[in-house]
């Protein structure tokens, strides 16, 4: 009855209007044909719901990580087949050759789905940062930081540990069971990507300019648009289709051929970041390590896996079981997928240097670039073989890579190390931008455009992706904390540091905002090729490994550039406990020598701080030859680079670096007066801060200095001379301790017996006397003590 009342009078009219609109809308939709994105969205939703249900069920069954070998999961298989069928129907593709040449376009997942895809992170106890409203970011006080990262201090073996308040958390990531379907949508091959607005008419000179060179194998037909499906790329979705294609008569192309497809872009326009994720064949949801999950070595293979560990200093056995084009979770902050990117980005040459890299990781690195980079932006991949010794990296690698037209191998005749190997790669590069990557990485979806965008916006910006962790033990892909920047501590030790919470709040820093870094980690970055050469590239005098990230970082900042981490670009990297390759010379000495070169060229007076932190022995030119620095010093002058003081004050003010260990007046507790240096002789006077002659410094090199004059202990005569400072002389050095037995004593370093600086009781001069802990005449106090 009540219901009927609604259908009376104006209610009836309203109901009629409503029903009519619905019917009209349905017709309209049918007429327009559902856009692929809607279909995909629907598919996606259904899958996500199914997925969650399945995950719940699976969780009950098995809360552990996926074991290897994996049991076949019939349900998931059916689900995948269904998806495949539906997608094929949507595209009206015939089935023949479906397994070749598919392009998977990673669908845009809603924030929630993305969250469920994320693995809990050993580096990120507070993974809520991403999900919290960006205006009120929360950074956990119990910050877990990744230490050691890619650059251990010289002489110390790299040891990757995760520490939380100084505690080791161990090396295994939290294990979770995660099932993800292949949510990918397949785009038929022979596909031309076109920008929505420019469409086909946009095939102008600008777009032709970006056409890739023709591959050397049989894919010429790619450039003939006759039989091609057209995929429109509009501002919202990459894969809004759809001009139905004619039934295919030619075999499907190899994915690499697709990389040579033409992307037509409108000059000056914007498009949504391309989240490409191509695969060689449909992904096996059960393959070990699929979706970036942890894989496990079966008990009977443990011995084998242990035996093979040294080949790469990670789980080489497991890596071999994982598909070369496995999926990994899209760990980008949600805002990244919505980002608009300029259409006319520069192209890049990706340069991988390697020496005795493990086969499976090298391939996975290369495929991750091929599969997840917009083809028109990827000019080439250069593999620089730094004189590897492994056989499989010769003919077998040549044969494999010859199938991939974009990949070129450059062989170095002798081992140069990664620095000169990168220079060799750069010299061959044809792209506008150089992108250097380590040879055991996995690029995540959408990794490239955000990097190139920064270089495009300002050619002096050097863009680094967020380096995520591929676990060396279980090969899982783990995201890292947000708001991390690359820093260094003395003596030039690279590390990560979280941007303070207050700063984030005050400046309203968003999780996807680029982060300026005082130094880069070194392994992965994009730099404008011309700018790289303007900066003189790397110092070619740096050997093998180490210090080059410091060199390039200081050079970039001090000579007018900037270094940024781009949170929308993410690349996984296997952090290894040890270098799996040998060093032609002693490892420790090689790294120390590199660092000394960097210090001499770039640190000005601050090089003393470097040497003062455990590297005083490098000052002894008899025991180490750091090589000729003339060219490097000349380059710095030519580029009119700023001072290191400027760098510290403007780029990295957080690094509080006092000019000396102690300085100011030097007060003696016995005579209760201050040391004074006048006309090369030492005496005492009533303390007066305004008097230049009373100001001394106890330098980082442990010299007692007044301007260029140093107090030089004469051990045999037990007196103190004043000489022009010579940093290389060990007997100019004093040990000054504030907290040990001989607190506040100045102990002559070159003397075999403990001889201390003592004030004459008549306060007329200073002498060297055997150290006495209680003597006030041997106790000295500096106005400022920074140590
Ligand atoms: N590399 C090289 N020659 C060398 C040392 C390293 O080509 O003498 C390569 C190595 O294969 C890797 C990259 O340079 O692709 C960085 O080296 P590594 O991964 O050992 O550095 P880390 O990540 O530990 O800093
Ligand atoms: Mn590496």
CATH architectural grouping of the largest domain: Alpha-Beta Complex
Radius of gyration: 32 Å
Estimated helix fraction: 25-40%
Distance between the termini: 89 Å
Name the hetero compounds present: uridine-5'-diphosphate, manganese (II) ion
Number of domains: 4
The coarse overall form would be elongated
Question: Structural class of the secondary structure composition?
Answer: alpha+beta
CATH class categorisation of the largest domain: Alpha Beta
- The CATH topology of the largest domain is what? Spore Coat Polysaccharide Biosynthesis Protein SpsA, Chain A
Overall pLDDT: 74
Q: Describe the biggest sheet?
A: 8 strands, antiparallel
Our estimate of the beta-strand percent is 15-25%
CATH superfamily of the largest domain: Spore Coat Polysaccharide Biosynthesis Protein SpsA, Chain A
Number of helices: 20
Unreliable runs? 1-9, 25-266
The tally of beta strands, per DSSP, is: 35
Describe the protein in words.
With 787 residues, the protein is of the alpha+beta class. The protein has 4 domains: 16-67; 72-277, no CATH class; 299-335 and 347-574, Spore Coat Polysaccharide Biosynthesis Protein SpsA, Chain A (Alpha-Beta Complex), CATH 3.90.550.10; 662-785, Trefoil (Acidic Fibroblast Growth Factor, subunit A) (Trefoil), CATH 2.80.10.50. The protein has 20 helices and 35 strands. The chain is elongated, with a radius of gyration of 32 Å. Mean pLDDT is 74; it is low at 1-9 and 25-266. Uridine-5'-diphosphate is lined by residues 150-151, 353-355, 357, 386, 417-418, 421, 438-439, 523, 544-545, 576, 579, 581.
């Amino acid at each position: 009855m009540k219901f009927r009342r609604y259908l009376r009078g104006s209610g009836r009219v309203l109901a009629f209007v409503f029903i009519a609109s619905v019917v009209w809308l349905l017709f309209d939709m049918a007429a327009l044909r559902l856009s692929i994105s809607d279909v995909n969205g629907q598919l996606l939703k259904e899958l996500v719901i199914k997925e969650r249900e399945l995950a719940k069920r699976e969780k009950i069954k098995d809360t552990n990580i996926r074991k290897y070998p994996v049991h076949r999961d019939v349900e998931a298989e059916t689900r995948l087949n269904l998806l495949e069928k539906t997608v094929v129907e949507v595209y009206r593709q015939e089935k023949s050759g479906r397994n070749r040449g598919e392009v998977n376009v990673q669908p845009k997942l809603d924030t929630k789905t993305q969250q469920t895809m994320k693995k809990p992170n050993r580096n990120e106890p507070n993974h809520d940062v991403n999900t919290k409203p960006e205006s009120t970011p929360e950074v956990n006080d119990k910050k877990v930081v990744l230490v050691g990262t890619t650059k251990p201090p010289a002489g110390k073996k790299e040891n990757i540990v995760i520490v939380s308040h100084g505690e080791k958390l161990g090396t295994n990531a939290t294990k979770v069971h995660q099932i993800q379907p292949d949510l990918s949508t397949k785009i038929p091959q022979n596909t031309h990507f076109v920008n929505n607005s420019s469409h086909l008419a946009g095939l102008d000179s600008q777009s032709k300019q970006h056409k890739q060179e023709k591959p050397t194998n049989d894919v010429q037909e790619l450039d003939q648009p006759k039989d091609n499906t057209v995929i429109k790329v509009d501002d919202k979705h990459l894969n809004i289709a759809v001009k139905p294609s004619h039934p295919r008569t030619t075999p499907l192309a190899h994915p690499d051929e697709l990389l040579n497809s033409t992307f037509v872009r409108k000059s000056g326009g914007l498009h949504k970041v391309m989240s490409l994720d191509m695969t060689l064949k449909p992904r096996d949801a059960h393959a070990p390590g699929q979706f970036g999950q942890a894989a496990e070595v079966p008990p009977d293979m443990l011995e084998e896996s242990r035996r093979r560990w040294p080949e790469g200093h990670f789980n080489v056995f497991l890596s071999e079981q994982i598909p070369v084009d496995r999926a990994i979770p899209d760990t980008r902050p949600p805002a990244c997928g919505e980002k608009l990117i300029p259409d006319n980005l520069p192209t890049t040459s990706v340069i991988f240097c390697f020496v005795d890299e493990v086969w499976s990781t090298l391939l996975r690195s290369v495929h991750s670039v091929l599969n997840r980079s917009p083809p028109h932006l990827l000019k080439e991949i250069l593999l620089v073989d730094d004189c590897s010794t492994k056989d499989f990296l010769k003919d077998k690698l040549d044969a494999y890579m010859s199938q991939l037209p974009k990949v070129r191998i450059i062989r170095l005749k002798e081992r140069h190390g990664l620095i000169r190997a990168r220079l060799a790669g750069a010299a061959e590069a044809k792209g506008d931008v150089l992108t250097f990557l380590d040879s055991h990485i996995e690029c995540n979806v959408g990794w490239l455009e955000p990097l190139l965008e920064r270089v495009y916006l300002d050619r002096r910006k050097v863009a680094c992706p967020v380096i995520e962790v591929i676990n060396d033990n279980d090969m899982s892909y783990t995201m890292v904390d947000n708001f991390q920047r690359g820093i260094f501590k003395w003596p030039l030790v690279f590390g990560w540091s979280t941007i303070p919470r207050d700063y984030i709040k005050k400046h309203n820093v968003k999780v996807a905002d680029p982060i300026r870094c005082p130094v880069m980690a070194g392994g992965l970055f994009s730099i404008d090729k011309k700018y790289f050469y303007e900066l003189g590239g790397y110092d070619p005098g740096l050997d093998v490994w180490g210090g080059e990230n410091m060199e390039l970082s200081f050079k970039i900042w001090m000579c007018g550039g900037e270094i940024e981490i781009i949170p929308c670009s993410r690349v996984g990297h296997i952090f290894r406990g040890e270098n799996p390759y040998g060093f032609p010379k002693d490892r420790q000495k090689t790294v120390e020598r590199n660092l000394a070169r960097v210090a001499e060229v770039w640190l000005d007076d601050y090089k003393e701080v470097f040497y003062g932190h455990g590297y005083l022995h490098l000052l002894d030119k008899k025991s180490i030859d750091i090589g000729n620095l003339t060219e490097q010093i000349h380059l710095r002058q030519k580029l009119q680079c700023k001072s290191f003081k400027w760098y510290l004050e403007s780029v990295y003010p957080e690094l509080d670096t006092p000019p000396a260990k102690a300085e100011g007046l030097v007060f003696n507790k016995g005579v209760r007066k201050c040391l004074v240096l006048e006309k090369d002789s030492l005496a005492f006077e009533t303390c007066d801060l305004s008097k230049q002659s009373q100001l001394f410094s106890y330098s980082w090199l442990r010299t007692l200095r007044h301007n260029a004059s140093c107090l030089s202990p004469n051990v045999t005569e037990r007196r103190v001379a004043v000489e022009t400072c010579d940093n290389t002389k060990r007997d100019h050095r004093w040990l000054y301790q504030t907290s040990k037995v001989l607190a506040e004593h100045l102990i002559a370093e070159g003397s075999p017996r403990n001889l201390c600086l003592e004030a004459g009781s008549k306060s007329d001069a200073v002498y060297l006397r055997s150290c006495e802990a209680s003597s006030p005449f041997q106790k000295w106090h500096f106005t400022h003590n920074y140590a």
